[in-house]
Predict the structure.
Amino acid sequence: MITTLDYGKLQAMSQPKRLTEQQIKFAELLVYNEGKLSPAEAAYEAGYKTRARKAAAEMRNPKYFPLVVKYIGELRAEIREKYGITFERHVSELAQTGNIDNLSADEIKDKLKKILDDNKEIINITPEDIESNTLELQEESNLDSHSQKD
């Protein structure tokens, strides 16, 4: 009889293959926090406290953990279906956002002004309230002042 070794690479032949609680937690953390947690962070949070990076890499490898990889795929498919995400739709939305390289300087200024106007409640700056004569310049460091005198 073969016993479970090193994160479940080999399972006992008499036991049905199934995911452990830690593996389920890893997969869910990985998928539901995509872009927020790295795979190593997801593994650590799932309970793989030592060698989390190695555990994350192995659990995403179908050669070692086909059930974990399959579960991750199922979770991602569920999210795509729930939110209607497709490659074509994603590319289409990206194309609609435009490209700054194709804009003139005036168009860029207009877009920036609109962004500032739309978000003025959350942006904590008021440049029109600051008068230039009230600004104090910081003294230059000794190194800078010496280099300018020479």
Summary: The two ends are 82 Å apart (CA to CA). The mean pLDDT is 76.
